[in-house]
Amino acid sequence: GSWWELCAARFVAGLSDGMVFCAVPLYFSEVADAKVRGLFVSGLIVMHLTGVLFMAVVGSFLPMKSVALFCVSVPLIVFLTFLWLPETPHYYVVRGDLENARRSLRKLTAKVDVEPEIGHILETMDDCDGSKGKLLNFISNGNSRRGIVILLLIRTVQQFSGYVAFVFYLPAILTEASDFVSPVISTSIYYTLQMTFALISMVTIDRVGRKPILVFSVASVTLSLSVVGVYFLVQGYGYVNLKDYSWIPLLGLFLFISGYSSGLHSIPVLLVGEIFPIGVKVLAITLFDMYYSIVSSIASKFFQYTKDEFGMYVPFLTFACCCAC
Questions:
Q1: Which of 157, 246, 261, 285 is deepest in the core (most CB within 10 A)?
Q2: What is the CATH number of the domain that holds 199?
Q3: Percent of the residues in the chain that have a pLDDT greater than 90, as a whole number
């Protein structure tokens, strides 16, 4: 297709992604039990990565038009099935429509008596009634401020973890390591590892807890960034002939994506829907998704500038320091 068709497609895809990553965590936070909420929100990431893996593998063998025509069937099925998806009871309670809230709860819980759940929602709404959707109250509230600081730090670390660096340099890393394994196989391994560790995180996050998984994820990412950064430092200054060690960035890439997918990829999305009260949850999710996009652009530009001006090792070691701190 022409360039404007591709630009239009990317615009629509970006718009859709923004809606999905705002609406789905909010929906799960309102309808899912706390014991399985992590499972559902992490499942969103797993489904996203499944699609990426499919596109990476199938896209290597089929033309873009064929892949696009095949993939359009999935959102079409989702659209048709979502027409029967019940609205959250919180949505109705906020608008004072308790009867529809009860109907929604009966569909979601398969219970006849939902009065205890309705009472709990009403109690929760009363606790945060003074801060519904108000930006000033959201910022001035002490509990919200602590949540804001936590999410700002985690979202910043998420973007300055080097994910952008690895994604941008992925073709070069795969080409450099082609003597050991073909780029097609490496790409398949990369996305399979990403999906596998996201799946492991999905089934363990509610049992192990958010903090241990996040600590493991950040530690793995820091180690992999440090290894690859040192490799590029040695390569840049020509201390050692690294031709026989060109597999090191590939190993670092696999270690990085395993660690990143296990926690840093999904937990920030989950936390936004968990740590803020119902009255400001919509506002919080929207603001932090906007912040995510802004920091992502900054991290991308930082990587490109430092790589061109100082060498590849600078952004990798900088990202490693950001994660270590």
A1: 261
A2: 1.20.1250.20
A3: 5
